[in-house]
Amino acid sequence: MRGKNNRKSVSYAKWGYIFIIPFFVVYAIFTLYPQILTFYNSFFENYREGLTQIGPNFVGFDNYIKLFTTSTDGMIDIVKYFSNTMIMWIIGALPQFAIALLLALIFTSTRLKLKGQGFAKTVIYMPNLIMASAFSMLFFSLFSTVGPINQILLANGILDKAVDFIAFKVPARLLVALMNFLMWFGNTTIVLMAGIMGIDESLFESARIDGASSGHVFKDITLPLLRPILVYAAITSLIGGLQMFDVPQVLSKGIGMPNRTTFTVVMLLNNYLSGSKNYGMAGAVSVILFIITGILSIIVFKVLQKKED
After folding, report:
1. How far apart are the C-alpha atoms of 309 and 306, rounded to whole Å?
2. Are 172 and 262 in contact (CB under 8 A)?
3. How far apart are CA 286 and CA 128, in angstroms?
4. What is the pLDDT of residue 309?
5. Closest CA to 245 of 101, 88, 138, 97
6. Which CA distances in Å does 169 have to 19, 90, 172, 298?
7. In degrees, to the nearest 5, what angle opens at C-alpha 286 toward C-alphas 285 and 292?
8. 100 in helix, strand or coil?
9. Sequence-separated (6 or more) residues with CB below 8 Å from residue 221
10. Is 136 helix (H, G, I), strand (E, B) or coil?
11. Which tens digits make up the pLDDT trace of 70-80?
């Protein structure tokens, strides 16, 4: 009988490995292989000059040296573009997380019991569904010299003449940050709401019975238990910010106006790919961006994540 039962028993462990094989195959073909190829190409001179194809010729670290070579204005271009990217991301990310956290607390509050929450959640999430290029074109039209914003300011006597907002560094960066904020604060709100709703309600009830104020409940219960979700949201926002491209590309007509102060690292990468088809330099930019993203993600994780006793 024992031998008969053993023959009928089925090992399900192998089926788990079989079911996850498609994921690893797709990942290897469409993600891992292109990453390895990008790293490989970064060590080669490989570009097109007119109708002539130059390379591929192995040049070692020459592409990386060129990226960190000082330009005619005395600055290192990739460092300048990285600082542009980080400034515009930080300006948009700080209010994004502050307002998203506030809305998440309001929507999940059992005391307030606000009506029309479903409609409000839909409205704040809708900008995330709009293509970034279309969003940028809308803002480009709104803030152009003949756009409605200028016309309203002129009609009310606030301005004497129309202002080209995109021609000035601070307004242009603020517009990029504002668009990123409007597109992503709804998504961040939903993520934080999910985190708050995952906290055991009995913890809040116990705190209220003990006489804890709303501020103490938030500081001592909500925020510590929400920290893993905040870490996830911050890291994904950072990765998205470093990959900022379509909003400044459309708003600044692809040249990072004014004076390349809205030019980002990925716009530099796109210039190498769409212009001279310089796969070597594009690969070097991609590798540097990958390293920077990894380092900053680790820093954000270490800063926001506290060790458990």
Report:
1. 9
2. yes
3. 26
4. 42
5. 88
6. 52, 16, 5, 31
7. 90
8. helix
9. 199, 203, 204, 207
10. helix
11. 888 788 999 99
DSSP letters for 285-309: HHHHHHHHHHHHHHHHHHHHPPPP-
pLDDT digits (tens, 9 = 90+) for 46-102: 888 877 888 789 999 999 999 999 888 788 999 999 999 999 999 999 999 999 999
HSE-up (13 A, CA, CB side) for residue 180: 32
For residue range 160-203, list pLDDT tens digits in order: 888 888 889 999 999 999 999 999 999 999 999 999 988 888 88
Q: Which two tokens stand for residue 274?
A: 């769409």
Q: Tokens 């926001």 belong to which residue?
A: 304
CB 242 within 8 A of CB 293: yes
Residues in the chain: 309
Residue 21 exposure: Cα atoms within 13 Å on the Cβ side: 6
The tokens of 302 are what? 């270490």
140 — phi, psi (to 5°)? -60, -40
pTM score:
0.86
CA torsion sign for 83, 87, 90, 93 is negative
3-state SS class at 261: coil
- Round to whole Å and give the CA distance between 309 and 307: 6
